[in-house]
């Protein structure tokens, strides 16, 4: 568990927990590190309310304005990727995954200086911690 795979700017970590536990761990870790959870989107719950079915899948939108604002000041288009997002879902084999945009990808996508990487790169360690 906790092994990170990255492809096309999307990093994925396998979680040792079910979806609700993974989300709770993420929220607790974010709070402990002074991050704000701005929204929680329950894709599978929305599907159920629409009369459809799908495996559990939810997204947390989170961040810290002190860290994100300098990126937005350097390139307003980074607002497409900020606040940060963590997508948690259960696959066909009942494995649970956390996916997020790799910090290097976000910087490259918006033409930002690597000096701004530290503003968002630390989230990866928190996501990995939640997966353990």
UniProtKB/TrEMBL annotation:
<dbReference type="InterPro" id="IPR005180">
    <property type="entry name" value="DUF302"/>
</dbReference>
<protein>
    <submittedName>
        <fullName>DUF302 domain-containing protein</fullName>
    </submittedName>
</protein>
<dbReference type="Pfam" id="PF03625">
    <property type="entry name" value="DUF302"/>
</dbReference>
<dbReference type="InterPro" id="IPR035923">
    <property type="entry name" value="TT1751-like_sf"/>
</dbReference>
<feature type="domain" description="DUF302">
    <location>
        <begin position="41"/>
        <end position="102"/>
    </location>
</feature>
């Amino acid at each position: 568990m906790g092994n990170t795979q990255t492809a096309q700017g999307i990093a994925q970590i396998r979680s040792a927990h079910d979806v609700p536990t993974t989300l709770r761990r993420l929220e607790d870790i974010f709070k402990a590190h002074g991050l704000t959870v701005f929204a929680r989107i329950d894709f599978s719950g929305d599907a159920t309310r629409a009369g459809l079915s799908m495996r559990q899948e939810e997204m947390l939108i989170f961040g810290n304005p002190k860290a994100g604002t300098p990126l937005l000041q350097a390139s307003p288009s980074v607002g497409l990727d900020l606040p940060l997002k963590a997508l948690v879902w259960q696959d066909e084999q009942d494995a649970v995954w956390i996916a997020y945009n790799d910090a290097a990808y976000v910087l490259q996508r918006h033409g930002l200086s690597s000096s701004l990487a530290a503003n968002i790169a630390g989230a990866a360690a928190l996501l990995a911690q939640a997966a353990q």
